[in-house]
Amino acid sequence: MAALRLGGPLRAVSATFKRITPSRVSSRNAISQILTRHVAASNARMSSSFFAGEPKGPVLKTDIPGPKSQEHIAKLDQVFDTRSLNMLADYTKSFGNYIVDPDGNALLDVYAQIASIPVGYNNPTLMKAAQSPEMATAIINRPALGNFPSHDWVEILETGILKVAPKGLDQVFTAMAGSDANETAYKAAFMWRRQKERGGPAVDFTKEEMESVMNNQSPGASQLSIMSFKTAFHGRLFGSLSTTRSKPIHKLDIPAFDWPQATFPQLKYPLEEHAEENAKAEADSLAEVEHLIKNYHLPPCAVIVEPIQSEGGDNHASPAFFRGLRAVTKKHGVLLIVDEVQTGVGATGKFWAHDHWDLPEPPDMVTFSKKAQTAGYYYGDPSLRPNKPYRQFNTWMGDPARAILFRAIINEIQRLDLVKHTAEVGDYLYGKIEALAKKYPGEFQNLRGKGMGTFIAFDNPKRDEFLKKAKKFGVNIGGSGASAVRLRPMLIFEKQHADLLLEAMENIVSS
């Protein structure tokens, strides 16, 4: 099969595809014949404005996985569990918005390593940062940050992580990954609450507390909880897993804390046609949150919420709901933790998704990871620091090398104005999918994410088949929840990439 560069006017493909029957040619060859007729149109397409030399469209040379990929996968499976493998990648050849496999197939990647690649594969600016003496020093002399921070650690933080700190939050605890960020935020919440109940940081622990905690008993082990929402995802470690409610497979067989969950508003779409019902769903959810805060047998010291429930199916709520949540938590002296692990760093058309809410006062903590390529939580209240050293502590406490990388990512985002760019491309893409939804009723159900950058999703009745078929049309795309197709392109995703995606999606549902 000759290499095919997809793109151009693929809307004509579907009608041709239907005329090619399985008895005449295999599915792969059928697609190949169709796409060959459109190579010239594809070659006329613009390449990326941000990545000189990026492919003008997907390139397909083999089935996915092809023979070389299959060989690599077979070897890998002998030493590593490959059952969740999506596709094997060759990152030495992946570039910009395109992920490349060992067989030379180049797919437009709108999944981006589960929303964690911000500014493209092999970004030259990040490559330069990675090759700097500062990065080399951070890698080969990795410090135990709590004990032996480097002389320039404060400068690295102030010119990077803290440069984009959410409003009102001027301190940070750095961590290793999103789950770790949430775990340490929970620990901070528990210590804050007990410190407050004792009468302040100057009040020391009692002998009973010191002895009972060694047996995992109260009063040393507090009888408190963290409240989360149904269909939420906050990680896979023990504390974070107890607040994860998205899929049973995440939690089966693992001991869990007896912590409360409230109902996340189940909005109906289009939003403008269900305003009254949606407002009631949000009011009912807030009433349930308040009831649990007041009555749950293990009192919540914090509520954690995602601006958009990502793994649980891309569930949205209105800014008014989140303002109400801030008011309820404040009223009852409960901390509000906003989990921006997946929504942060520009994907929603704001650097932080909670900036869309217009909160009268900031959350107490905001956790981050993924596109930041590092992790941790921001906070502002000094009392969220525990009263003694070594209480919030581990060997690494983050990674200066990853903090340096995030600084380079921030500079690239600001240099290219990528947050504004993402908002504009998101509006364009949403409008085009809206038109597809009218043209193909039932295929793009519950379209959501209007005004939220490229953080767009819809439900498809044959979602898994949709995702699998996408690769045949040169697109790597992901799902969430039971039936959602979620878009997670990089911040360098442009309108010409959106057109390629739209053409592919139309052919997926019409073939």
Strand content: 5-15%
Give the N-terminus to C-terminus distance in angstroms: 21 Å
Q: Please count the helical segments.
A: 17
Mean pLDDT: 92
Briefly note the CATH topology name of the largest domain.
Aspartate Aminotransferase, domain 2
Structural class: alpha/beta
Number of individual domains: 2
**Numbering strands along the chain, what is their spatial order in the largest sheet?**
5-11-10-9-8-6-7
Q: CATH first level of the largest domain: which class?
A: Alpha Beta
Specify the helix fraction band: 25-40%
The dominant shape is globular
Q: What's the name of the CATH homologous superfamily of the largest domain?
A: Type I PLP-dependent aspartate aminotransferase-like (Major domain)
Give me the count of strands. Answer: 16
Major sheet: size, sense and barrel closure?
7 strands, mixed
Low-confidence stretches: 7-27, 30-44
Just name the CATH architecture of the largest domain: 3-Layer(aba) Sandwich
The radius of gyration computed from the alpha-carbon positions, rounded to a whole number of angstroms, is: 24 Å
Cofactor: pyridoxal 5'-phosphate
EC number: 2.6.1.19
Pfam family, one: Aminotran_3
Family: Belongs to the class-III pyridoxal-phosphate-dependent aminotransferase family.
